Automatic annotation (TrEMBL):
PANTHER family per UniProt: GLUCONEOGENESIS FACTOR-RELATED, UNCHARACTERIZED PROTEIN YVCK-RELATED
UniProt-annotated location(s): Cytoplasm
Organism: Vagococcus humatus
Protein name: Putative gluconeogenesis factor
Keyword field contains Cytoplasm: yes
GO cellular component, one term: cytoplasm
Listed Pfam families: CofD
Amino acid sequence: MKTYRIRKPRIVVIGGGTGLPVILKGLRNESADITAIVTVADDGGSSGSLRQAINVSPPGDLRNVLVSLSEMPKLYEDLFQYRFKKEDEFLANHSVGNLIIAALSEMRGSTYEAIQLLGKIMHVDGHVYPASEESLTLHAVYEDGTTVCGESKIVKDRKPIDYVYVTNSCNQETKPKAARKVVRAIMEADMIVLGPGSLYTSILPNLMIEEIGQALLQTEAEVVYICNIMTQKGETEHFSDADHVSVLHKHLKQPFVDTVLVNTAQVPDNYMNKEKYDEYLVQVQHDFKGLRSQGCRVISADFLELRDGGVFHDGREVVEEIFRLVFGAKY
C-alpha cells in the first residue's frame, strides 16, 4: 500500500543490475520523488547483442527500472518482461521489453527519448534517465598493468582491478557526457543512493562520466552507499565493506560517501544456489573502523532477504532506513 506525503523527498538512485529495482519498488511505495540514473555500459546478453545489431543503448537495466516504477497492470508487466526461449532461434533470450525499447529508440533516434515516452505509456511514478545518451564502453586496468575492454569481459580473468573508466562506444575521441537533466537531478536531490549493485560494472560506469562524478562531489544531498552483501567473482573478491567505499573514493579522488548501509545478518551455510548465482562468492567482511576512518556514518542492520536460492537486500527494510535518514537530515 502506498504512503502519501505532503512533501515528497527527492531521492536519486544511481546504478544498474538486479539490485536497483528492489530499492526503487520500495521507494515508489513510500511516495518518494524518485529519479533513477541507469548505466548504459552493459554489453552482455540481450542488451549486448541489440546494441551491436542496431547501435542502441543497452536496454536491459533500463527495462527493469521502468517496470519497478510502473503502475501498469501485472499482465502488461509480465509481457514486457517476457524472455523468449533459448530455442527460439534469432529471438532467443531477448525480452519483449528490450525489443520495444530498441524499436522506440530507432523510431525516435534516441534511447533517452524512447525511455521518456515509455515512462508515460507505462505510467512510471518517477523519472528514469540513462546515465548518458550514448552507449558507453567500460574499460578496466588491472593492478598488473594489463587492460580489458567491455563490461562483460572484465570479470573473466579474475585479476585485481586498479581502476575503470568509460568511453563513448561509437566515437571514442569524444568525452562521455551525462544525459540531459541528470546533473540537475543530482544537484536538486535531498539524497543520493548508490546501489545496491556490482561495484565496478553497475555503479562506477555512471560515476566515471565526469559531469556525474563532479555533481556527486558538489551536491549538498546526503550520499548513501548500500554495500553489497556478497563479494563478486572477478570484481570484489576478498573485499570488506570499507574496501568497497575506498574504491569509490579512489575513483573520484576524494571522499564523498556520507553514510553506508551494511547488512549484518548471516547467510546460512550452503544456502546459495551456486549454479544459478555463480558470480557470488562469500559474504562481505565488515570493517567498521575502516569505514569511519573514511568519514562515513555506518548503519548496520538485518537487511537480508533470502529467496529462490539467492541473497538479496530486503527492499522494505532498506527503504525504511533511507526514509529515516532523509527525514532526519532535511525535515
